[in-house]
């Protein structure tokens, strides 16, 4: 009886407020999830050939020995980065809705695409999952940290422990508003260990999870703190990747 009543309420809400796709705002059915079939097919992986370290598209005709301009200045501890899709429509809309639109329900769908982009064999035994933290003020404003939602789903998919190892201090500009050369200085010193978890990453590989990879400045800053805490190496996994050369 209760289940039938709940089903009736959902159908009534569907009639009054039809759900829309987070990618294109097209109407969805009750069982259609949060992303329409068309938007699912429009999500594109970064094209080949790719840098073996950061998977940035390298273009054709370039020797494999040529240093990648996207990751050549990353700290050595950040050994690998993988992204599920390009930061292009509809991925940009999905990221915006998750991050700013109050759609935490998108996290399982996005994280599932991320898990497919990172072969489990690339992770060593004893790996831990760590989310890139946002500032306390932004988390209060949004009601959640989108990277932590994604990390929870990724950790479950891989069967790995999720550790809250880092915190982020308030202050500083959002990375979105900055040019490429400003991003690194903007994140210097913003990450700190969570004291109660300091020992948990010691000697362990870490899978660092975030929503978007642009230059790697944020991930690099977080990776350096994890290294100082004793992490053996750091892998980065994101949903979307901005095209090389973007701000």
Q: What layout of secondary structure does this protein have?
A:
Layout: H1 2-16, H2 37-42, E1 78-86, H3 91-99, H4 107-117, E2 128-131, H5 136-142, H6 146-158, E3 166-168, H7 180-186, E4 191-193, E5 206-213, H8 217-228, E6 234-241
Parallel strand pairs: 1-6, 2-5, 5-6
Antiparallel strand pairs: 3-4
Mean pLDDT: 85
CATH class group: Alpha Beta
Low-confidence stretches: 12-16
Overall body shape: globular
Could you give the count of β-strands? Answer: 6
According to CATH, the fold-level topology is Rossmann fold
Structural class, judged by helices and strands? alpha/beta
CATH architectural label:
3-Layer(aba) Sandwich
Reported for the largest beta sheet, the result is: 4 strands, parallel
Domain unit count: 1
What percent of residues are in strands? Answer: 5-15%
Which percent bin holds the helix content?
25-40%
Q: Write down the oligomeric state.
A: single chain
Biggest sheet strand order reads: 1-6-5-2
Question: Can you write the helix and strand succession as a string?
Answer: HHEHHEHHEHEEHE
Q: What Rg is obtained from the alpha carbons, in whole angstroms?
A: 19 Å
**Distance separating the two termini:** 55 Å
- How many DSSP H or I helices? 8
Describe the structure.
The chain has 247 residues and is an alpha/beta fold. The chain has one domain (44-51, 73-241): Rossmann fold, CATH 3.40.50.2020. 32% of the residues lie in helices and 14% in strands. It is built from 8 helices and 6 strands, in the order H-H-E-H-H-E-H-H-E-H-E-E-H-E. The strands form 2 sheets. It has a 4-stranded parallel sheet. Helix 8 (217-228) links the parallel strand 5 (206-213) and strand 6. The radius of gyration is 19 Å and the shape is globular. It starts with a helix and ends in a 6-residue tail after the last strand. Mean pLDDT is 85; it is low at 12-16.
């Amino acid at each position: 009886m209760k289940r039938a009543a709940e089903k009736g309420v959902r159908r009534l809400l569907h009639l009054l407020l039809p759900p829309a796709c987070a990618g294109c705002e097209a109407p969805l059915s009750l069982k259609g999830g949060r992303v329409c079939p068309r938007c699912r097919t429009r999500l594109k992986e970064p094209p080949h050939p790719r840098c073996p370290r950061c998977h940035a598209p390298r273009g054709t005709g370039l020797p494999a020995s040529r240093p990648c301009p996207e990751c050549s200045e990353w700290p050595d501890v950040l050994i690998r980065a993988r992204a599920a899709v390009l930061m292009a429509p509809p991925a940009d809309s999905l990221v915006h809705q998750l991050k700013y639109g109050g759609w935490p329900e998108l996290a399982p769908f996005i994280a599932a695409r991320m898990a497919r982009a990172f072969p489990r064999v690339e992770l060593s035994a004893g790996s831990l999952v760590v989310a890139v933290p946002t500032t306390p003020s932004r988390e209060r404003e949004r009601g959640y940290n989108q990277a932590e939602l994604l990390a929870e789903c990724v950790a479950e998919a891989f069967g790995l422990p999720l550790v809250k190892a880092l915190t982020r201090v308030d202050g500083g500009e959002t990375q979105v508003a900055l040019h490429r050369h400003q991003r690194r200085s903007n994140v210097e010193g913003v990450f700190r260990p969570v004291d109660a978890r300091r020992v948990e990453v010691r000697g362990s590989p870490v899978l660092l999870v975030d929503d978007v990879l642009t230059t790697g400045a944020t991930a690099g800053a977080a990776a350096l703190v994890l290294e100082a805490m004793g992490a053996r190496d750091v892998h980065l996994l994101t949903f979307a990747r901005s095209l090389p050369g973007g701000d």
